[in-house]
Design brief:
By secondary structure, the chain is α/β, with parallel strands linked by helices. Among the domains are: about 1-35 and about 450-545, Orthogonal Bundle (Helicase, Ruva Protein, domain 3), CATH 1.10.8; about 130-280, no CATH class; about 565-785, 2-Layer Sandwich (Ribosomal Protein S5, domain 2), CATH 3.30.230.10; about 785-835, no CATH class. The chain is built from 30 helices and 30 strands. It is elongated and about 175 Å long.
Length: about 850
């Protein structure tokens, strides 16, 4: 039977024939930028990007290393090239509410043009307006206004003086203004002289003085009105001058944007503000003293014409198609934008020109690609992203305002409408947690693009591997591969997939292998990468990572870790497990032992009792217990107990791949038949005794092979695996060669019966018509042992009873008549209980 179950060398590894390729070198192949081996994910991605209904954003899930981020970026970039380029966005000064900057929408490229136009306008006004105010025409007109004002004021004063003299008073200019004094004999008298006048004369002069004071007040009002009118005339003159300069320039700007009503309204406000603040442009630079020049500027000294600048928030002048933005640090401000501040003398200030765009602004009208884990590590960013997608607008808010007890004055920029397709890239576990816990996630990320870790190994996918290698070599300046090198990469892809019918789609690992193979080819002074270089790259990868594996192998060789590879032992089987450290996995053989003894049918896993095993391993132990009961306890309950353990194992154990190994050890212990130590075992068992597939078949076989090889191959050593795992074998060539030379053996089985036959050299046995196992079979030995264990307690009881009876008749006197009945009953009671038992 063992020969019929043994695998042929051709079953241990699938070989990629270089002759299958229609090229000699990869540089003969075309360059492609497509996602390889992900038809399901690509179809979902296309759907999510094309549908424009709300909520159809995309979550791309798949294990790390599948090249999702890079492939999706290229895929989305390619589709975005055919889309329409979105608008530019600018923030401008709000002349009505300065703390609420206004957002203006412009055609692509117009934002930069408007910035330049407004900067040119300010520069023009800075130069031309002061020059216009220095021209002779302006000075003459201003002089005329001044002279007219003085002439009218002089007339008012002349009329007032004449009226005062007519009334007998003289006008006098004092520091407090105009005053009057009575005239006597054509001379103004002093207050002392006025006090010496007759009372009647004083009263008469006082009455006239009061009337004259009213006339003086009216005259002063006329003088002020004349001055005010003159100032208005001078201001109107300034406005005419500045309008003559600004209006044509602003009109020229407006004509460049005939379709934008927002720009027209904005330019009208700019012109009105320029005219209203003409004095800002008339101010000339004043020579500063050395001390003043050393002082720091304060916010109040900022030039007033800053408000005429344009803050270009989003510039799509150089964008072809729709923008594709990848934000690697999606914090709140990097997503939503921010308002920067400047510090001056211990205080901070800001203005609308310090508003900076976030990733949502740059991706508006296009696509935003984010790593889900990075977004969720910034909770404020995740909530802000969902709110922006939900409300379809980008509302820029400063986080500091949300945590301050006292509100402070700051900017409140006008929200910008949002139209973006968000693509989240993350792990499957994160997707399902979000889908369960976050209702908004289910509503706004409806498209699931699932990326697989492998693809079918077909001639087409072989060629796709070659095209992938060609692209990597071209983009990164690597050496070209010949077809033997490509074939070796394909085989390694199958090894990574752990399947002879599949190739891995974790192209991050494949790309690393391509880079390393190119390095070793250059190191070996070759101009082309061959299969030898690829094998060297794989060996070097292993050498850099397998130090712990080698240390454990040394411990086995030294005998510190006890693993037998020759001879036979009862109740002891070599089990196989996989150890993963970082990105490296290797197979580890472990001694599994079982002891059986009389009991109540309980199988104790020592690792479970000390909490060193996981739930899956515990399930496997319960499953094999069920198999034992179904196999050997149909007529009577099992009267035994057993203990199972992994010897010299000090870390947590999980998985059910050792359940068949544990069962073999139990069967060996029960039957009394030893099992071969040169055969290692892996496989899960179900309640019917069928062997089920396990993971890591390739590293498990290679791990035991290396132990045997180090000790010397005897030609009897080998490994038993489930039949279902044959397709998963991609063993190293040295293992295949050893099998070919009959130095090592690999068996594929479907049942416990087949496995125990290989291990013990005896048939397991099948029930005959009478329900018994044939003599000489292992199961017959198990049944006999169980019957022996069940009879032993009964025989011991019978022997004890016989000994007690003999002692009562031969050497013990009967009770005397003096004893009462109660004493007799007390003495005979224990004997009756023993009999009852």
């Amino acid at each position: 039977m063992s020969h019929s179950l043994e695998l042929e060398p051709k079953q241990l590894r699938r070989v990629c024939d270089p002759a299958d390729f229609d090229f000699e070198m990869t540089d003969e192949l075309p360059l492609v930028e497509e996602i390889i081996g992900q038809p399901r994910g690509c179809r979902a991605l296309v759907f999510g990007l094309d549908v424009r209904s709300p909520g159809f954003n995309v979550y791309v899930l798949g294990p790390a290393g599948t090249g999702r981020a890079t492939a999706i970026e290229r895929f989305v970039q390619h589709r975005a090239e055919a889309d329409e380029t979105p608008f530019d966005w600018c923030y401008v000064y709000n002349f009505a509410e300065p703390h609420r900057p206004e957002a203006i929408l412009l055609l692509p490229g117009q934002g930069r043009a408007l910035c330049q136009d407004m900067a040119g306008l300010v520069e023009l006004l800075r130069i031309e307006i002061p020059r216009a105010f220095e021209e002779e025409v302006y000075e003459k007109a201003l002089l005329e206004v001044q002279q007219a004002k003085e002439k009218r004021q002089s007339k008012v004063f002349s009329e007032l003086d004449a009226h005062a003299r007519q009334e007998g008073f003289a006008l006098m200019q004092t520091p407090a203004g105009l005053n009057i004094a009575p005239i006597i004999e054509e001379q103004a008298i002093s207050p002392e002289q006025f006090a010496q006048l007759p009372p009647e004369t004083q009263k008469e002069l006082e009455a006239k003085g009061r009337q004259l004071q009213g006339r003086i007040a009216e005259a002063m009002r006329q003088v002020q009105q004349i001055a005010k009118q003159a100032r208005q005339e001078a201001q109107e003159l300034d406005q005419k001058v500045i309008t003559a300069i600004a209006a044509p320039a602003i009109q020229e700007i407006a004509e460049k944007y005939p379709d934008s009503e927002e720009i027209r309204l904005y330019l009208d406000q700019v012109q009105a503000d320029i005219v209203a603040h003409v004095g800002d442009f008339k101010v000339q630079a004043v020579q500063q003293s050395p001390v003043e020049a050393m002082r720091l500027p304060t916010p109040s000294t900022e030039p007033s014409f800053l408000r005429y600048q344009v803050n270009l928030l989003v510039d799509n002048s150089q964008t072809t198609g729709a923008p594709v933005v990848i934000e690697n640090n999606p914090s709140y401000h990097n997503l939503m934008g921010r308002v920067e501040h400047k510090a001056r003398i211990g205080a901070t200030y800001t203005d609308f020109t310090m508003i900076k765009a976030g990733a949502l602004h740059r991706a508006n009208g296009g696509y935003l690609i984010l790593r889900a884990g990075d977004v969720l590590s910034n909770p404020l960013a995740w909530e802000a992203l969902k709110r922006a997608v939900k409300t379809k607008e980008i509302r820029l808010e400063e986080l500091t305002q949300q945590y301050q007890l006292v509100a402070t004055a700051t900017l409140e920029p006008e929200p910008i409408p949002l139209e973006v397709k968000v693509v989240l890239v993350g792990s499957p576990s994160l997707y399902y947690r979000l889908h369960t816990a976050d209702e908004d996630f289910r509503k706004w990320f409806k498209v699931k693009a699932d990326f697989d870790v492998d693809m079918d190994w077909t001639p087409e996918t072989q060629r796709q591997y070659a095209l992938f290698i060609r692209t990597r070599c071209q983009e990164e300046g690597l050496l070209p591969f010949d077809r033997t090198g490509v074939a070796q990469v394909v085989e390694h892809g199958a090894r990574l997939a752990a399947d002879q019918e599949k190739l891995t789609t974790r192209f991050g690992l494949v790309a690393d292998l391509v880079r390393e193979a190119s390095f070793w080819a250059r190191h070996n002074e070759r101009s082309v990468v061959t299969a030898k270089d690829v094998r060297q790259a794989v060996e070097e990868q292993t050498y850099r990572a397998n130090m712990i594996e080698e240390r454990e192998r040394e411990l086995v060789q030294q005998g510190t870790l006890m693993v037998d590879t020759e001879g036979e032992r009862m109740g002891q089987v070599n089990g196989l497990s996989v150890v993963t450290i970082g990105n490296y996995s290797f197979g580890r053989p472990s001694r599994v032992t079982a002891r059986t003894f009389a009991g109540k049918g309980q199988v104790t896993a020592i690792e479970r009792e000390v909490d060193m095993s996981g739930r899956v391993h515990n399930k496997g132990v319960l499953t094999l217990t069920s198999f034992l009961n179904a196999k050997f306890a149909q007529r009577k309950p099992l009267s035994l107990s057993a203990s199972i353990t992994f010897e010299q194992t000090y870390e947590r154990i999980d998985g059910d791949s050792a359940s068949s190994t544990e069962l073999y050890a139990l069967l060996s212990s029960l039957s009394g038949y030893p099992v071969k130590q040169e055969i290692a075992v892996t496989g899960s068992v179900n309640q019917h005794g069928e062997i089920q597939a396990i993971g890591g078949a390739t590293p498990k076989i290679e791990g035991f092979f290396q132990i045997c090889q180090a000790r010397g191959l005897t030609g009897e050593q080998g490994v038993i695996i489930p039949t279902q795992n044959v397709r998963h074998l991609m063993l190293r060539q040295e293992v295949v060669d050893a099998v070919r030379e009959k130095k090592f053996h690999i068996y594929a089985i479907r049942s416990i019966d087949e496995g125990i036959a290989i291990l013990s050299g005896r048939a397991a046995g099948e029930l005959d018509k009478e329900g018994n196992y044939p003599q000489g079979t292992l199961y017959r030995a198990v049944v006999e042992r169980l019957e022996e264990i069940a009879k032993k307690p009964k025989q011991e009881k019978e022997e004890n009873e016989e000994e007690e009876n003999e002692s009562n008749t031969n050497g013990v006197e009967p009770p005397s008549a003096e004893h009462d009945d109660e004493d007799d009953e007390n003495k005979e009671g224990p004997v009756e209980k023993d009999n009852g038992d």
